[in-house]
Amino acid sequence: MIATLLLVMEGAVVVTPQTGLVLDANLKQIGDDALTVLDTNDPFDGIILKHYVAVWNNTTTNEIIYDTILFGNSSGNALNRSLSYLLPDDVLFNLDFIYVNDSTTDEVTVRRVIDNGEPGADAVVSRRLVTLFANESGYPLSAYWNSTVFLNDPQVVEVRLTLWQV
Amino acid sequence: MVTKESGSSSGQVSIDFLVGVSLFLLALVFLVHFIPGVFVTFEPEPFDLGSVAYRTSVILMEDPGCWLNTGTMRTESDWEDHIDSVRRVGLAVDKNHPNLLSLDKIEAFADTVNLSSSNLSRALVLFRRVGSNDLFYGYNITLTDSSGNRWTRGDVPPQSGNVARIRRIGLINTSEYGWIDADSCLLGASNPAKSLIRIPNSSVAELCSRDLHFNLTNFNITGPNPKYISTKMVQTNISNETGDNLVDTGNGIHIKLGSGTKLNQPSDGYTKLNGVYQGDLNTNVDLSSSSDILEIVINQSAFTRAGFDITDPVEEDIFIEFNFNHIDCEEEHSPYNVTCYNDTLHNVHRVCNLEVWVW
């Protein structure tokens, strides 16, 4: 009887739609698109992601301030405003910069740049790499990066965008 | 005497019955296990629609598309100029710039006359081959930009049934606009401020065949009630200036009184302040902040109305004069040093959202 029950249950086909994973994939794609749009190589009417990273001075959260033209305005956190403009209204996000603080010790530093709260259980992450060189033209490095980026040792920063729906 | 009980009331199942029931149960289990597998191939595939929607969004957002050049037997990406031979409809400017879309390709995509629905479905692989037949998916593809423009193809998504949807974010590469840092590039006459922008004769035919957009920002405000006042332009031989149409009264050069054409007709153009329409070019625009963005648009018809020569070869330069109140304009005494419009050109990108529905 037990064997019969076992065989019957194994034989039944149960279709489980994976709608949850589809939603996660869609949200991650939106995050990837937002970082790609910010990184589009036209520095004048849209701020390149690299420039945002370059002017960050290792200060507390919400301190990236840059004169923008189409994205955000000249007061407040321009990167926060740019991402808020791009992402849907029902999506919250945090942004971290992750980099090696000291090349000799390979210490990885994670700094929260934009903090909009604790991510939900269904949060997804999008990433993009930015490389800062010591002799950048057009992207003046902040005092903080100037102390860490050397001519022969460019600084690679991972921009990590954590998104979740509310 | 003890009577032996008969088998029918002994409480024991006969071996024949056991064998029969076991065989029956085995057959039943086999059927229950086998039959669902017969129908698996006919199950609806809700996951497949999500993949189709994603694939369509990737083709549109990240691929420039292609058409088959039957002369060279090679595919090329400028399908928007060869819609009859399109093989794949992509909207990206090129392969190296995903999520950056071409406005020309978008307008060709939205052209229902030249790009039929069936051709579009094939160009976006919105069908599934079953045997020798192609089953086409229902779809709706809608692209909207930050200026409120909307391009859509396909049908209205159904209210019920299996429908997959995906949303993407991108930028539309619209056209080249002039961006002018007012603090450093307004050159001409000061007090009152009359700044000149020069279009060299070699560029007149190309630039004056379309509307000209000027975006001015980073104003240096020098007094109360700063404002834009008016626009004037003149076509002149620069080698004869200052003299014929441009004058230097000591505080810098500007268009001579009585020369040039004042753009005071509604059809000549318009202004916007921080994206908000203000009026025609003869309407004052109050500026409140140095970071205000003043957009000045000179319609192409204004050059015709002014009687300018804009057909190649063009002999004379065009000077455009913006008049301001209490905005700093650096004095310039040589027309050759005036800011050239060509040097201010930058591509303008508009944020856009792409939604793909497939059913």
Number of E-state strands of chain A: 4
Mean residue pLDDT of chain A: 75
Instruction: State the secondary-structure class of chain B.
Output: alpha+beta
Oligomer classification: heterodimer
- End-to-end Cα distance of chain A, whole Å, is 49 Å
Averaged pLDDT of chain B, please? 88
Strand order of the largest sheet of chain A: 2-1-4-3
* Unreliable sequence segments of chain B: none
Percent strand of chain B: 35-45%
Class by SSE composition of chain A: alpha+beta
**Spatial gap, N to C terminus of chain B:** 84 Å
The largest pleated sheet of chain B is described as: 9 strands, mixed
- Compute the CA-based radius of gyration of chain B: 36 Å
The number of helical runs of chain B is 7
Instruction: Count the domains of chain A.
Output: 1
Helix content range of chain A: 25-40%
* Tally of distinct domains of chain B: 2
InterPro entries (chain B): DUF7287
Pfam family, one (chain B): DUF7287
Transmembrane segments (chain B): 12-35
Keywords (chain B): Membrane, Transmembrane, Transmembrane helix
Task: Describe what you observe in this structure.
The complex is a heterodimer of chains A (166) and B (359). Chain A is an alpha+beta fold and 166 residues long. Chain A has five helices and four strands, in the order H-H-H-H-E-E-E-H-E. Chain A has one domain (17-165). A four-stranded antiparallel sheet of chain A has the order 2-1-4-3. In chain A, strand 1 (91-102) and strand 2 (107-114) form a beta hairpin. Chain A is elongated. Chain A starts with a helix and ends with a strand. The model of chain A is unreliable at 67-75 (pLDDT under 50). With 359 residues, chain B is an alpha+beta fold. Chain B has helices spanning 15-39, 46-62, 103-109, 117-123, 182-185, 201-207, 300-305; strands at residues 65-69, 74-76, 86-89, 100-102, 127-130, 133-136, 139-145, 150-154, 164-181, 187-189, 193-199, 212-217, 227-236, 246-248, 253-255, 261-262, 269-273, 276-279, 285-286, 294-298, 317-325, 330-331, 339-340, 345-358. Chain B folds into two domains: 46-174 and 352-358, no CATH class; 185-262 and 280-342, no CATH class. The chains are: A alpha+beta (166), B alpha+beta (359). The A-B interface holds A 4, 7-8, 10-13, 15, 17-19, 22, 25-26, 29-30, 33-34, 36-37, 40-42, 44-46, 67, 69-70, 73-74, 85-88 and B 25, 29, 32-34, 36-37, 40, 43, 46-47, 50, 54, 57, 61, 97-100, 164, 166-171, 179, 215, 217, 291, 293, 346-349, 351. Chain B: Keywords: Membrane, Transmembrane, Transmembrane helix. Chain B: InterPro entries: DUF7287. Chain B: The chain crosses the membrane at residues 12-35.
